[in-house]
Amino acid sequence: MRYLLDTNIIAEPTKVNPNQQVLNCLNQFAEEVAISSVSWHELWFGIERLPLSRKRQYLEEYLESLLSVNLPILPYNADASRWFATERARLTQMGLAPSYPDGQIAAISKANNLILVTRNVSDYANFEGLIIENWFN
Q: Which residue intervals define the domain PIN in the entry (predicted)?
């Protein structure tokens, strides 16, 4: 594995007009990507809030297809929680309290020595030692 995909990256193919560069990168690096258990939760939470509809069914089928291709879903474990606790304390002392889910995603990326791929670079910019890529550029 080389990349941890943020929620906005793994959701991009479900858009009506998905970003072609993101799709190209997803295809190119298909064997080198994983997502976090936090993103998996965010994706399912979004679906669970939708009424029964074709859109919901399409999104459910998309997530199930990710499992069928064995997309790794990485847990928020002891190493990740320790790293995030350190970073959260450091950033909070600086008046930059991070979003808890973003911190967990960052920590999973860091604990697994992965490059975090996101459109929301600014959400992760203050985390120390985190490598970030934006496939939308």
A: 3-120
Instruction: Please give the order of strands across the beta sheet that includes 115-117.
Output: 73-74, 33-36, 3-5, 115-117, 132-133
Q: How far apart are CA 107 and CA 101, in angstroms?
A: 10
Give the DSSP letter string of 18-62.
--HHHHHHHHHTGGGEEEEHHHHHHHHHHHHTSPSSHHHHHHHHH
pLDDT in tens, 6-24: 999 999 999 999 999 999 9
1 neighbors 34 (Cβ within 8 angstroms): yes
Q: Three-state SS for 115?
A: strand
pLDDT digits (tens, 9 = 90+) for 29-68: 999 999 999 999 999 999 999 999 999 999 999 999 999 8
Question: Any idea where the domains of the chain sit in the sequence?
Answer: 3-133
pTM value is 0.95
Cα(51)–Cα(46) distance, integer angstroms: 11
